[in-house]
Amino acid sequence: MTDVVHEPRALREACDQLRASDARVGLVPTMGALHDGHLSLVAATREAGATRVVVSVFVNPTQFGEGEDFDKYPRTLEQDVELCRERGVDLVYAPPVDGMYPEGFETHVEVERTTARFEGAHRPTHFRGVTTVVTKLFNAVGPCVAAFGRKDYQQWRVLWRMARDLDMPVEVLGCPIVREPDGLAMSSRNRYLDAGERQRATAIVQGLRAADAAYRDGEREVARLEALARAPVQADFDRIDYIAVVGAESLEPCTGTAGDDVVVLCAAHLGQTRLIDNARLGRDRL
Ligand code: AMP
User: Fold this and answer.
1) Predicted pLDDT of residue 26
2) Is residue 170 part of a domain?
3) pLDDT tens per residue across span 109-135
4) What is the pLDDT of residue 1?
5) Same domain, yes or no, for 166 and 230?
6) Active-site choice (6, 35, 38, 122)
7) Quick check: 213 pLDDT over 90?
8) Ligand 1 atom closest to Cα of residue 28
9) Atom of ligand 1 nearest to the CA of 33
10) What is the mean pLDDT of residues 70-76?
11) Ligand 1 pocket, CB under 6 A
12) Interacting residues of 106 by C-beta distance below 8 A, sequence separation 6+
């Protein structure tokens, strides 16, 4: 049975009860329009020891910037609950916006260094919205293991940092990217793509594969790896926000020679749609 709750107090009570009967609670925060990428996170919490799983579905207004896609973001709660039910999820938490941000709300959580570049530079208010809402989710759920996708690689690092810095009683997992058969990273935003854009969208994974293949062959020159990742995206996308080789833990941009644990981060625009993707070179399956 999948229960749907809408209020933080109801969620906390339900989770406290589960823990009182020795359950280990897993949490999968999402904005809904669920796909196999989200559902892989449900499985990941179980692999990490969760015996009961909560999925939150909340299109969080504070992580969208001015002019971004908050209004048109897909909202498919009924289908999402059905998918959760099929996967044996115990609770779906779907709070209303004014429940999450009641009148007079004025408190935020900010992570500094890890948010400074890349997504943080291109979407200046984004991470503050994410870290604040995820803090609220962690508080409403209580001690748990929470799964995030490495699809949003920087977000995972930011939330891992936040939980650690603020002594949150949450184990933060970073889980592999789930891809379509042609390699495109699954994303709720892929629904925005028309047929032509959908074809061109694979340019990102083509670039990542080219950089990954070169890295596996011994290429370590950062400029060369970035050029390989960039070429197909430059050809098929309308605008690139960034393509950069960075340290997998520090997220500091690499210069000169790439080390042995690096990630290529990419964000680019195709028509009205902004897509992100990444690969840990020599390690990820692409
Ligand atoms: P979203 O609903 O887009 O906010 O994503 C909710 C969670 O699912 C985040 O932790 C994402 O990183 C993760 N996620 C989204 N797409 C994928 C994917 N293709 N593979 C793995 N995780 C994903």
Assistant:
1) 98
2) yes
3) 999 999 999 999 999 999 999 999 999
4) 83
5) no
6) 38
7) yes
8) 7
9) 2
10) 97
11) 30-31, 37-38, 40-41, 148-149, 151-152, 175, 177-178, 185-188
12) none
Strand segments, DSSP code E, in 89-159 are 91-93, 144-149
Query: What's the average model confidence in pLDDT over 253-257?
Result: 96
pLDDT above 70 coverage of the chain, percent: 100
The gap between the terminal CA atoms of the chain, to the nearest Å, is 36
How many domains, the chain?
2
Q: Note the pLDDT tens digit of each residue in 16-34.
A: 999 999 999 999 999 999 9
- Indicate which residue's Cα is closest to atom 22 of ligand 1: 149
Same domain, 143 and 69: yes
- Whether 108 sits among the annotated catalytic residues: the reply is no
Same domain? For 206 and 270 the reply is: yes
Is the pTM for the entire model greater than 0.85? Answer: yes
CA dihedral 153, 154, 159, 165 (to 10 degrees): 130
Residue 130 CA, ligand 1 centroid: distance in Å: 13
Same structural domain, 53 and 127: yes
Ligand 1 mean position, distance from CA 217 (Å): 30
Measured in Å, residue 225 CA sits from the centre of ligand 1 at: 26
Cα atoms in the Cβ-side hemisphere of radius 13 Å centred on 230: 13
Burial degree of 90 (CB within 10 A; 0-12, 13-18, 19+)? buried
Instruction: State the residue range of the domain holding 165.
Output: 3-175
**Per-residue pLDDT, 145:** 98
